[in-house]
Specification:
With 443 residues, the chain is an alpha+beta fold. Helices cover 25% and strands 21% of the residues. The chain has a seven-stranded mixed sheet, with helices on one face. Strands 2-3-4-1-5 form a five-stranded antiparallel sheet, covered by helices on one side.
Length: 443
């Protein structure tokens, strides 16, 4: 199938959806996608159904002009009017789906984006998936170069991203077919494409582009689920190589809606100290560090607060194997009142509890959760509450994440915001085991 693209088109068009991303599926003339752009411009993807390939399967590009694309678009848009006086740019492409066999050569040379997989460029799939490739590789390279992680984590670049490319191409083949097929005439028409089917594919395409449809299989970076609660579709069952380190165990049922291997979802929470409402993802900064998210539960109950303090003691006792990074921090006071170094850690700690702000004081929490800088004071953006905001409503974060509001849990989020490990507050050893598989013993 051949597609023309008129980009940055200023037009006079009497269509209600011209400022909304939409698709128009004509009965006989093909399909068009409309994407509004900046400065009153519009991008149009237009199917060129009347142009046929030669004997070699290629198209004669000399026959394809802006006027030919506009004529095809006008046929699809009838009876609506489409014309323009200014055209910023145009191009034409022939769809082809391909994926390379290897994304790297001995973990020394790496390929990403269009260099290793190609597909139709509708709606930024190539750009977004390519950036996800690059970021997946980038944070792993950074940790290896800094001596924090073992070079073996670089092998996960191919195992994670090649599977994504294969899934994307399989989807893109079906998606392209939907675009080139005519819509159904009625419920008895079995040869056409129903609008419900087209809309479903439209939504799935957005999940690919955003990365929220990606689920990484168990590896040294994504722990296995040992609770038996994760479906095959979400957990991505793959055969394990006996020569590779065994992924750490994890417990999906502790955070039923926060799926191992998938992007950590965002919920609205409020800051414990100033009651300001935030999307929690704002604090999962893309800075190359892991995040350990402590769902502290109902800390208004003394027994639960003691569990939180025990967790902090366990983390402090393992400060050499589980070093935390305290931003803008020169030192923090341990629970014994002694100053300890912040160090060059590879993870940052964030806390969400389910009590109310009035029930618990900031200083009731272990000092590990509220780092102190001798010049700047406390870092107040480390502890948050799943509570109703004065002006933003209730985010219901614990419900959204599928976490028990009384008991809580601990979740490790990778630098690319994919969920890596889930455990109980008492399972500090399991947390240490997870990091021990791929981090260097002496940093």
């Amino acid at each position: 199938m051949k597609n023309g693209k008129l980009t940055r088109l200023s037009s006079d068009m009497y269509v209600a959806d011209i400022r909304s991303r939409c698709a128009i599926h004509s009965a006989e003339s093909g399909t068009i996608m409309i994407i509004p752009r900046e400065d009153r411009l519009v991008r149009i993807y237009c199917q060129l159904s009347t142009i046929t390939p030669g004997s070699d399967g290629r198209f004669d590009r000399s026959r394809i002009t802006p006027d030919a694309i506009l004529e095809a678009a006008q046929k699809i848009m009838r009876p609506y009017k489409l014309d323009y006086r200014y055209r910023h740019w145009w191009t034409v492409y022939q769809i082809g789906q391909r994926v390379g066999n290897h994304f790297s050569a001995r973990e020394r040379i790496f390929l990403a984006g269009d260099a290793i997989h190609t597909h139709s460029p509708k709606a930024g799939q190539g750009m977004n998936v390519s950036m996800q490739d690059a970021y997946n590789l980038g944070w792993k390279l950074a940790l290896v170069v800094k001596g924090i992680a073992k070079p073996s984590i670089l092998e996960t670049y191919e195992t994670e991203r090649r599977r994504v490319a294969q899934e994307l191409i399989a989807f893109d083949q079906g998606y392209s077919k939907l675009w080139s097929s005519r819509p159904t005439k009625d419920t008895a028409d079995l040869n056409g494409v129903s609008m419900a089917e087209f809309e479903k594919a439209f939504v799935q395409q957005q999940l690919f582009s955003s990365g929220f449809g990606v689920c990484y299989s168990p590896s040294i970076l994504t722990a296995k689920d040992s609770s038996g609660a994760t479906s095959d579709m979400r957990n991505g069952n793959v055969g394990e190589d006996p020569s590779k380190p065994i992924p750490a165990n994890s417990y999906q049922h502790l955070a039923a809606n926060t799926i191992l291997g998938m992007r950590f979802p965002s919920s609205r929470v409020i800051n414990h100290c100033d009651a300001r409402s935030w999307h929690f993802a704002k604090w999962l900064k893309a800075d190359g560090f892991f995040h350990i998210v402590l769902f502290a539960g109902d800390v208004s109950q003394p027994a639960q607060m003691e569990r939180v303090h025990n967790f902090a003691r366990g983390m402090t006792a393992r400060s050499r194997t589980l070093p935390l990074r305290h931003q803008h921090c020169t030192s923090h006071l341990g629970d014994d009142g002694k100053s300890s170094e912040c160090g060059n850690g590879f993870a940052q700690m964030l806390t969400i509890h389910s009590a109310t702000r009035q029930q618990v004081e900031f200083h009731d929490f272990p000092s590990l959760l509220r780092p102190f800088d001798e010049e700047l004071g406390y870092d107040y953006n480390r502890i948050f509450v799943d509570e109703e905001s004065y002006y933003e409503g209730h985010g219901h974060a614990y419900e959204g994440y599928g976490v028990d509001k009384a008991k809580g849990c601990v979740i490790v989020v990778r630098p690319d915001q994919h969920v890596a490990w889930i455990g109980e507050l008492e399972d500090v050893q399991g947390l240490e085991d997870y990091f021990a598989v791929f981090t260097t013993p002496h940093r």
